[in-house]
Specification:
Radius of gyration: 13 Å
Mean pLDDT: 95
Shape: globular
Strand content: over 45%
Distance between the termini: 40 Å
Number of helices: 1
Low-confidence stretches: none
Structural class: mainly beta
Length: about 130
């Protein structure tokens, strides 16, 4: 059974930092691109960042480029999103996703609306003024 479990969300002041994690199990990791997405109630889910299984290819949404960093743990089954210089507009539920059909992280960023293989349940990040 595949599981993606996010953790690390919380409340942080604007300008601060936070790291969220996604622990994956039940996956053949070499087959999957992993990514982070976020959603504000009443709005569509947006792409944030993605990474290939080796961890040497990443892609970011323009809104987070230079502030957020996606990485994989040494065991490859954990994906991190380090968020720096947080803004109130970054407030959202952050979701982890895995997909075996997209060939690259950039492809995940452009094709995610067609569906991902697996989603986590999300972790809430709140950035206060």
């Amino acid at each position: 059974q595949v599981q993606l479990v996010e953790s690390g969300g919380g409340l942080v002041q604007a300008g601060g930092s936070l790291r969220v994690s996604c622990a994956a199990s039940g996956l053949a990791f070499r087959r999957y691109v992993m990514g982070w997405f976020r959603q504000v109630p009443g709005k569509e889910r947006d792409f944030v960042a993605a990474i290939n299984w080796r961890g040497n290819n990443t892609f970011y949404a323009d809104s987070v480029k230079g502030r957020f960093t996606i990485s994989r743990g040494s065991a490859k089954n954990t994906v991190f999103l380090q968020m720096n210089s947080l803004k109130p507009d970054d407030t959202a539920v952050y979701y982890c996703a895995a997909d075996s059909r997209v060939p690259t992280p950039r492809a995940m960023g452009t094709l995610f609306k067609y569906g991902m293989d697996y989603w986590g349940k999300g972790t809430l990040v709140t950035v206060s003024v």
